Amino acid sequence: MRLLFKFLQPTRENSAMLPRILFLQSAGEGEILMAKTAADVLIEGLIDWGVDVVFGLPGDGINGIMESLRTHQEQIRFIQVRHEEAAAFMACAYAKYRGRLGVCLATSGPGGIHLLNGLYDDKLEGAPVLAITGLP
User: Fold this and answer.
1) What distance in Å separates the CA atoms of residue 18 and residue 134, rounded to the nearest whole number?
2) Which CATH number fits domain 39-133: 3.40.50.970, 2.40.30.10, 3.90.1150.10, 3.40.50.2000?
3) Is residue 125 very low, low, confident or very high in pLDDT (cuts 50, 70, 90)?
4) 27-52: per-residue pLDDT in tens?
5) Letter string b/e over residues 104-125, b meaning 16 or more CB atoms within 10 A of that residue's CB
6) Roughly what angle, to the nearest 10 degrees, separates helices 84-98 and 116-125?
7) What is the dihedral sign for C-alpha 27, 33, 39, 43?
8) Rounded to the nearest 10 degrees, what angle do helices 38-48 and 63-71 cross at?
9) CA distances from 27 to 13, 90, 135 (A)
10) Which of 19, 66, 84, 122 could cross-link 92 (Cys pair, CB 3.0–4.6 Å)?
């Protein structure tokens, strides 16, 4: 199997596409190429690390990640919260009581800022938490 990388130049039509790298996978001649985005690589990496749940709130800056979570829903579960701070606190509690990596997800801008209170609790407790935010 070989991996082909195609770097997309930002244009007016594809400026909302995040990320700007498209991974194409092909096993040989005559096969259909399967597109894999960086969000797919991120989610598959989380699955490889043993993450089975992500706490967060959807938003425009993380649409690609949300789509990847949807397509991998058999392996990783997304729990939607009402506020980003709750996602960080839930990830901290998950990490403390399950002994595994807790993951919280928020969109860019205010969403990322709202994670900070919960992440400060994670810092004080020493819980292993990964916070993922989107791009503007």
Assistant:
1) 9
2) 3.40.50.970
3) confident
4) 556 555 567 899 999 999 999 999 99
5) bbbbeeebbebbeebbebbeee
6) 20
7) negative
8) 50
9) 30, 41, 32
10) 122
Global confidence as pTM? 0.75
Question: What sign results for the dihedral spanned by CA atoms 106, 72, 79, 122?
Answer: negative
The token pair that represents 14 in the structure block:
């594809």
The length of the chain in residues reads 136
Residue ranges per domain, the chain?
39-133
Nearest CA to 120 among 91, 100, 79?
A: 91
